[in-house]
User: Fold this.
Amino acid sequence: MYEFVRGPLLWISFIVFIGGSLFRLLYMAMLAKKKDHTVYTYMSLKYGLRSILHWIIPFGSINMRQRPAFTIFSFAFHICLLFTPIFLLAHNVLWYESWGISWWTIPDWLADIMTVVVIIAGVFFFLRRRLRPEVRYVTSASDYALLIIAVAPFITGFLAYHQWLPYKAMLILHILAGEIMLMVIPFTRLDHMFFFWFTRAYMGSEFGAVRHVKDW
Amino acid sequence: MTALLERKWGVTDIGLEEGVSRLDPSKITKVINQVLNGEGIARLKTYVDTCIHCGLCSTACHHYLSNDCDPTFAPVAKIKNTLWEMIKNKGRVSPAFIKQAAEIAYTECNLCKRCSMYCPFGIDMAWMLSLVRRICHLCGVVPQYLQDTANSHAVTMNQMWVKQDEWIDTLQWQEEEAQSEIPSLRIPLDKEGADVMYSVIGPEPKFRAQLIYSAAVLMTVAGVNWTMPSFDGWDNSDMAMYSGDWEVMGRVKKAHFEAAMKLKVKKIVMGECGHAFRSVYDVGNRWLGWKMHPIPIVHAIQFYYELLKDGKIKIVRKIKEPVTLHDPCNVMRGRGLMEHARYVVKAMCEDFREMEPNREYNYCCCAGGGVINCGPPWKKKRVDSNKIKAEQLAATGAKIVITPCHNCHSGIEDIINYYKLGIHNVFIIDLLMQCIEIPEELKA
Assistant:
């Protein structure tokens, strides 16, 4: 089992993630070219980047300032979710063993904290979905599923690292959870990690170049 | 399919009722798939696939805030109860569902785009709801009063069934009225090669003719070489844009642009209207294939600003009472004239007070986007759904509110009366008429 998730399934998940994402982006770019030329006509590099900048800086928009708790949890969640797996020492060791590559790593204690941050923020998002009427109203089962998929690699990784439960089984679950997440990204709303840049840039262009106002 | 919403107002609109009674499910499916697979499909797909259902757009919406944060009024909820269902069911939805979609799209969203500024992804929910309106229009399910204005556009090329002789007669009447103040004043009709073609919305000759008088005085005092067309194309308004009848919108905009070209003017100056500006600056021009407007277009606010800045008009009297300014979405969030307006207003008013929030963050009037044009059946819902505006207005302590947009103006008038705010509601030009100098040599 370990050999399977560590070997062929890993390859499959990378191929699905990268191939699927490229396919989705190219498909959308071509669809827009064919039937939605407005996007290309009004897209502006300057105003697109201006908008992105304001929305990737914590508290850079009025809505973020009005919701400090959400802003802090949201940024902490996304930063930790993205950087922990990339700079984790154990992952770097694996890459080095497999392909002879490695880069900067973060100390294990920091990775541990970042993992806990992802889990706590996940709980925050879950509670928010349950408790805030306006969020609950537009929440469906798939929203909970996506949240679980995003947080599962961190819960299992945390348990495997601390070896509170049988290590081998937890490690397999951890790898599996990570692979599932990678594979579903291109085909679910988790694809917002790619499309964020384009929707933001487009609205930034409309607001900046045509409307001459801020959009943050 | 999720259960249909129950709204406390229980409005019946003959346009929706009869429209729905003529619908059969196969027609609905055909229309939905035609619209959702047509132009805009890439944006629509991306928006729907990217929205993470976070609800952060909710507090941007005055309908949501005014209806005690009822989650069904959040922008994303309106998309859920219209487009999500249509997409999920591949267009197979019931006539009753289309009626609900029409009520949501026509009366619960003013297309003000405030929510786009609050969405982390910049999802254009107003545009998506205008696609829903397009679907409803093609299904023949449009509020009766709104449909009537669209019909008027189609038949007369103006919004108010004004016939050409009535139009010319109104202009001459206002010219005559204004001559009692300035004997040499003219409203020059069809003057080829003038610098400015002044255009207004259909309701001005219909029931706000005074504004044409004021504009004529302003043009004369400022010494502008101007004209107005006597023929179709004089009306810059466009309710067909809001009903979803984009073919008629295209005809109306084309007539407007062509009137200016026929008169060989240098630019169009338009009166204090927001949606008309949106239609020439953002929507109608795109339908006709123009990236921007094909001829320079200046909104009244910018025009006043330029006249004042260039010294063409002089402020000699100031308003002493406290004054506040409503920022209309289509010229502020839609064109960035926030500071232009403040320059003019502050020049005239000693005690100017900002609303909170203001500028591009201002709350919508709840009248624009065609909502007020849905007529009397929806009035109570419309004013109830803008309690937040009443609170915002009252908090300024102002005695006068300036609303430089026709839809906003009528909507805020209703809010002032309904909530008994006791605030006087004016256009910028109303105050200009009180404050500018009329040179002695022009006076009677």
